[in-house]
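Hi V.,

You were right to ask for the full record rather than a summary. Here it is.
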Amino acid sequence: MTHVITLIPGDGIGPEITDAVLRILDAAGADIRWDRQLGGMAALEATGDPLPGDTLESVRRNRIVLKGPLTTPIGKGFRSVNVALRKEFDLYANIRPTRTIIPGGRYEDVDIVLVRENTEGLYIGFETFVTVGGDPRAVAQSTAIVTRQGCERIVRYAFEYAVRHGRRRVTVVHKANILKATSGLFLDVAREVAEEYHGRVAMDDVIIDACAMKLVLDPGQFDVMVTTNMFGDILSDEIAGLVGGLGLAPGANIGETGALFEAVHGSAPDIAGQGVANPTALLLASCMMLDHLGDLTVARRIRTAVERTLCDDGIRTRDVGGHVSTDEFTVAVVRRLA
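Predicted structure:
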């Protein structure tokens, strides 16, 4: 069965790594027809809109998206297109698996799945300035919204993920000691949901700052983690750093009627066009997409080819200790698939 997938190559290094991923997917025999669309700065320059109507319509039609990194202006300009897509299609579950691929690093055998609530918290963008003494920017104010429904569905997703994948424990990460309303609600609901999985999946909880320390001291104590939007955003990057960086970190954004798969890293405009970007994160995200579509064999073949290229052949881009180009890495993975 041919899958029709919306493809957003993205900004910066996005088109380069997207091209590499498409070559590898084709070599692996993935049966996909791509519906190419624009987003981010590339879309703004071409259409005057960072998230054009044609792109939104394509996502509504196809329901599955593979997306390269998009640039978001810092401090001014348009808000994140990534956040806009998650909100528009209610992609409430952000899944970021992190596993040791390249041996010999500071930590061995890291295998953590972080489940992040994707649509609530501070990232809803309810912000305003308050005028004091004639200064219109004297006070900046941001409002976080956390709902019982939002808490329940993300925690339940984490427990269901644990059941499906034979995971032993879900750790709830929070700041309920200080943020007694927002984090307090999240923790209370998590404990309620955990009761339904008693005897199948264990549950514990940890305060966010202690969690950040424990990850550095011993990441092996964590299995599946679930947390709110901003905490998840921060922790997922920390966890990626345990295994070599964002160049190896894929992500998925899942909702009831759609799913978007992406690399966790940004658009890296400083190296765009140099042919040195690492396509591994987006490639592993495409494997998550294939899993979602039920193409488990193709996904498994690609993951095996990537690991053998990185570990057995020692062919790596410079961000993970190597020296090869994007194209040379792509050719090596394709060779492993032959």
